[in-house]
Design a protein that fits this description.
The protein has 190 residues and is mostly beta strands. The protein contains no helices and 15 strands.
Amino acid sequence: MRAQLEIDFADGTRTVINTDSDWTAGTGGLRYADLQNGVVDDARLEPAGWSAPGFSGAFGPVVIVEPSAGRPVAEVAPPIRVHEELPAQSVTRRPDGRIFVDFGQNLVGWVRLRVRGNTGDRIIIRHAEMLQADDELYLIALRSASATDEYVLGGDPDGETFEPGSPCTDSGMSRSPAIRASWPRRISSH
């Protein structure tokens, strides 16, 4: 990875942070991420405190390689931002234990799920635009995209939040199979 972060302050000064040998790297809970197929995130694998200033835990030095030709260029597309948060319009537990969540409209965004459960409990979220006549998710329009997010709970007794942040999920309905964790405390979509 090669990056340059430029921070412009209100007083007109600028700070530039480049990737260099002072950086550290390591692995975490994010095991897979794809724009159309979804995310697999295992909270058990997140190093404690990794996102806090001064973290020096399980990460190690980076390997510096000769950069490819050219200089870093800022993205030309506008940044993806949350415009609004939509609460679930309905949450229904099916007889087989699956939970269907309806946001009441077709949207492009991602879900945020707040749950409490045991270490290793898995939550799988399937996304679709609507229900079929048999009351199951209409998946034909997805073609080969799986549009599936998976979260493995770390077991935090205070609860944990899964927010894959994959902004291209075209969804109005979300379904999760039998969740052994407690009933989701809050489900919303961005």
